[in-house]
C-alpha cells in the first residue's frame, strides 16, 4: 500500500454502499466543476492543479530563502492567522519531534519555529518577546490580504524588537513577507523596507494555500523536505482528475459520505487522531471545512479530538451523548520509532501482560476498541489510513482533504471558496476601536452598549 486509503466498513447500519453509489454521478459532476470552473467560486480554483504546477525553480527559491533564515536564525516566528499559519503548523508539528522546541541550541539541526499573530493576547506577545530577547531570531510575516489585524500587531512589535536588537540592515535579512502581488498594507511595507517576498496567488484562498510559499517556506525552514510533500500531493491530484472513476476517487467518496450522513442528521463531524503531533492537522482541517461549508445556515460542524487523551474527557459524550455525530479517524499504519513495554519483576502495576509489546500495539488496540464501541453506540465511523507519518503521505492527505472539501461544498450547494461571515466580528471590532472610516458603525455600536 503506497497511498492513503479510505476504510468505510464501519458505516454499515448507517449508510449502505447503494446510498453512496447513488450520489456518484453528482460527485463526479462536482469534481468536473472544480476542474473546468463552471460553478460558484471559480476564481479561487488555483489550488486544483497547484501541486503539479510547482516548478523546480519555485521550490529552489523557497529552499534558498529557507537556507538564509536557517543560517541567520536560531528561532523563526511565523506571523499569520487562519490559512496563513495553520497549514505550516499542521505539517511542521506532524513531521517534527514532539519535543523539538526543547532541544538545546547545540543539539538542534533546525531553528525553533514559533507562531504569533494568531491571537491578540498581550501576555502571549509579552512572553514571546521575552523569550526572543536573547535569541537570534527571524520573522516570516504572512497575510494574503495584507490587512489582517492580528498578524499586523504582532509584526509591528516583533519588527521593532528585531531592529532594535540587530539593526535595520541585519533585520532585513531575517524578515520574509508572503502576501498579495500588489495589494494590501503588507505589500507596501515589504516593498518599502526591501524585504524578500513571496506571492500568494490571487486564485488560491488562504485555507487552500499550504502548498504555496505560505506553507512551504516555514516548512522548509523547519528542515522538512518540501519536494517530497509536494510529490505526495501531486499523486492524489493525478488520482482524482475528472476521468477517475468514482470507485477510485477517494476524496469524492469521502465527500459523498459526509453529505449523506449530514442529510441523515449527523450534523457534527469529529476528526479523530491517536497521535498528539496531528493536533494541528485537525486545526487546519477545521478551518478548511468550517469556512468552506458553514454558510447560508447549513454545513457540518467540524470538530476534532486527540485520542486517547480526549477519551478521558470527551469520550463519554461521544459514546452516549446526542446522536448527531460521526467520526473520521486518521489512523497511522506504522510508528516511526520503536518503544517496547519492559518486564518488571514485581509487576506491582499489573502491566506484565503487556511485556514486550510495542506501545503502538496498545494504541492500536485502544483505537480498535474505541471504534467498535463508538459504532455500537450509534456513531458512524470512517477511517483514513496513512501508512506512516512522512512528507509524502502528509502531502497526499492535504490534497485529499482539499479536493474532498471542494466536492463536498458543491454537493452541499454552497460556494466553498468564500467566507463572508468572517467579516462580522471584524466590523464590530473596528467600530469599537474607532478605526478611521468606521465612524458611523462606531456610533451605532456604542449606542447598543
Ligand atoms: O492571510 P490573511 O489575509 O491575513 O487572512 C488570514 C485569515 O483570516 C481571514 O479573516 C479569513 O477568515 C481566513 O480565511 C484567512 O485565512
TrEMBL record:
Pathway field: Carbohydrate biosynthesis; gluconeogenesis; Carbohydrate degradation; glycolysis; D-glyceraldehyde 3-phosphate and glycerone phosphate from D-glucose: step 2/4
Q: What is this protein called?
A: Glucose-6-phosphate isomerase
Q: What keywords does the record list, in alphabetical order?
A: Cytoplasm, Gluconeogenesis, Glycolysis, Isomerase
What the entry lists under SUPFAM superfamilies is as follows: SIS domain (SSF53697)
Citing just one GO molecular function, the answer is: monosaccharide binding
Q: What does this protein do?
A: Catalyzes the reversible isomerization of glucose-6-phosphate to fructose-6-phosphate.
The residues responsible for catalysis, as annotated, are 291 (proton donor), 426
Q: Source organism lineage?
A: Bacteria, Pseudomonadati, Bacteroidota, Bacteroidia, Bacteroidales
Q: Which species does the entry assign this protein to?
A: Proteiniphilum saccharofermentans
Amino acid at each position: 500500500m503506497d497511498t492513503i486509503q479510505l476504510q468505510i466498513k464501519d458505516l454499515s447500519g448507517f449508510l449502505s454502499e447503494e446510498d453512496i453509489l447513488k450520489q456518484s454521478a453528482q460527485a463526479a459532476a462536482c469534481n468536473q466543476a472544480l476542474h473546468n470552473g463552471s460553478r460558484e467560486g471559480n476564481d479561487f480554483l488555483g489550488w486544483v492543479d497547484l501541486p503539479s504546477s510547482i516548478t523546480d525553480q519555485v521550490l529552489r527559491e523557497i529552499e534558498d530563502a529557507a537556507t538564509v533564515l536557517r543560517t541567520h536564525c536560531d528561532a523563526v516566528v511565523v506571523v499569520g492567522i487562519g490559512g496563513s499559519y495553520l497549514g505550516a503548523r499542521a505539517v511542521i508539528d506532524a513531521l517534527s519531534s514532539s519535543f523539538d522546541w526543547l532541544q538545546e541550541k547545540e543539539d538542534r539541526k533546525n531553528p525553533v519555529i514559533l507562531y504569533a499573530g494568531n491571537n491578540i493576547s498581550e501576555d502571549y506577545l509579552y512572553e514571546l518577546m521575552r523569550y526572543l530577547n536573547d535569541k537570534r531570531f527571524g520573522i516570516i510575516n504572512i497575510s494574503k490580504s495584507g490587512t489582517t489585524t492580528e498578524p499586523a500587531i504582532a509584526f509591528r512589535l516583533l519588527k521593532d524588537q528585531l531592529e532594535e536588537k540587530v539593526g535595520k540592515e541585519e533585520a532585513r535579512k531575517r524578515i520574509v513577507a508572503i502576501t498579495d502581488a500588489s495589494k494590501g498594507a503588507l505589500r507596501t511595507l515589504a516593498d518599502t523596507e526591501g524585504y524578500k517576498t513571496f506571492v500568494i496567488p490571487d486564485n488560491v484562498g488562504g485555507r487552500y494555500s499550504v502548498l504555496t510559499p505560505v506553507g512551504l517556506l516555514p516548512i522548509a525552514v523547519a528542515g522538512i523536505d518540501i519536494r517530497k510533500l509536494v510529490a505526495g500531493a501531486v499523486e492524489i491530484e493525478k488520482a482524482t482528475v475528472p476521468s477517475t472513476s468514482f470507485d477510485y476517487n477517494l476524496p469524492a467518496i469521502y465527500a459523498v459520505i459526509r453529505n449523506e450522513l449530514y442529510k441523515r442528521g449527523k450534523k457534527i463531524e469529529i476528526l479523530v487522531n491517536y497521535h498528539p503531533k496531528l493536533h494541528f492537522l485537525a486545526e487546519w482541517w477545521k478551518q478548511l471545512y468550517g469556512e468552506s461549508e458553514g454558510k447560508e445556515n447549513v454545513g457540518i460542524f467540524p470538530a476534532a479530538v486527540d485520542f486517547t487523551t480526549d477519551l478521558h474527557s470527551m469520550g463519554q459524550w461521544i459514546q452516549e451523548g446526542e446522536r448527531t455525530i460521526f467520526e473520521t479517524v486518521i489512523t497511522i499504519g506504522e510508528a516511526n520509532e520503536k518503544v517496547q513495554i519492559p518486564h518488571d519483576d514485581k509487576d506491582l502495576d499489573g502491566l506484565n501482560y503487556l511485556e514486550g509489546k510495542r506501545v503502538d500495539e496498545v494504541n492500536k488496540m485502544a483505537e480498535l476498541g474505541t471504534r467498535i464501541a463508538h459504532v455500537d453506540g450509534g456513531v458512524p465511523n470512517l477511517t483514513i489510513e496513512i501508512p506512516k507519518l512522512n512528507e509524502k503521505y502528509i502531502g497526499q492527505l492535504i490534497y485529499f482533504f482539499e479536493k474532498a472539501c471542494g466536492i463536498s461544498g458543491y454537493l452541499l450547494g454552497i460556494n466553498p471558496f468564500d467566507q463572508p461571515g468572517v467579516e462580522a466580528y471584524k466590523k464590530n471590532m473596528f467600530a469599537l476601536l474607532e478605526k478611521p472610516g468606521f465612524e458611523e458603525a462606531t456610533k451605532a455600536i456604542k449606542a447598543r452598549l
